[in-house]
Amino acid sequence: AQKVTQAQTEISVVEKEDVTLDCVYETRDTTYYLFWYKQPPSGELVFLIRRNSFDEQNEISGRYSWNFQKSTSSFNFTITASQVVDSAVYFCALSFQGAQKLVFGQGTRLTINP
Amino acid sequence: EPEVTQTPSHQVTQMGQEVILRCVPISNHLYFYWYRQILGQKVEFLVSFYNNEISEKSEIFDDQFSVERPDGSNFTLKIRSTKLEDSAMYFCASSRLGGALHYEQYFGPGTRLTVT
After folding, report:
1. Alpha-carbon span A88 to A108, nearest angstrom
2. Chain A contacts of B44, Cβ < 8 Å?
3. CB contact under 8 A, B107 and A46
4. Chain A neighbors of B56, CB-CB under 8 A
């Protein structure tokens, strides 16, 4: 079965701290895709990144970075020098061969305190 | 930048009534989706739509639900006889392509459905 686990329900840090959001996935497929979405308090879902299973290179985009490790089935997301605007619920998601749907994790509520 | 739009932003309806939620996907996108999120919970897939037909649906998407692309721009979700447990945020999404490539899905702002 396909499953995404985000074990951290809530994280609270002080501004400028670095924070890592964990994502562990389960799939039997050798070809799959991983995503991160941000849901700010306004409620919309904002696409952050897509990764396919053949590309294990880490990615950095400004203060955001993603660490994909197939050996541990993890796709973790790090925010460096966090800001109050980073406060949101972050969802990790998986899609797999033969299906278009996204399977979401439970989400991690991140609160950045000034 | 093109975006997915949804109307209405909030709909209140009585149990047993029919509701239609509307979405305008990004114009050059070919795959369309509906998801729902019950308050405080994770986002759940309902249905995907391509080439004017359903390509995949979840167990949630039972006979009460239907989707339609009535014209070249709108994509609708109909719930025939709403139940209390249908109360949720409903998200429409679209992607440029799909098939083997699994392009990212872009989501609309959601419609909050409240069934009383």
Report:
1. 8
2. 104
3. yes
4. 99-101
CA B12 to chain centre: 17
Cα-Cα-Cα-Cα dihedral sign, residues A109, A111, A112, B2: positive
For residue B24, give the nearest of B73, B67, B97, B72 by alpha carbon.
B73
Whether residue B56 and residue A99 make contact (CB cut-off 8 A), yes or no, is: yes
Instruction: End-to-end CA distance of chain A: give it in Å, rounded.
Output: 41
Work out whether the CA dihedral A61, A70, A74, B47 comes out positive or negative.
positive
Put simply, the answer to whether A50 touches B95 (Cβ < 8 Å) is no
Q: Give the Cα separation of B18 and B11 in Å (integer).
A: 11
Tens digit of pLDDT per residue, chain B (116 long)? 779 999 999 999 999 999 999 999 998 898 999 999 999 889 999 999 998 999 999 999 999 999 999 887 899 999 999 999 999 999 999 998 765 566 789 999 999 999 99
- The pLDDT value recorded for residue B103 is 76
Question: Helix, strand, coil % (nearest 5) of chain A?
Answer: 5, 55, 40
Q: Are B24 and B4 in contact (CB under 8 A)?
A: yes
Report pLDDT digits (tens) over A5-43: 999 999 999 999 999 999 999 999 888 999 999 999 988
Q: Answer whether B33 sits within 8 Å of A37, measured CB to CB.
A: no
Distance (Å, whole) CA A32 – CA B46: 20
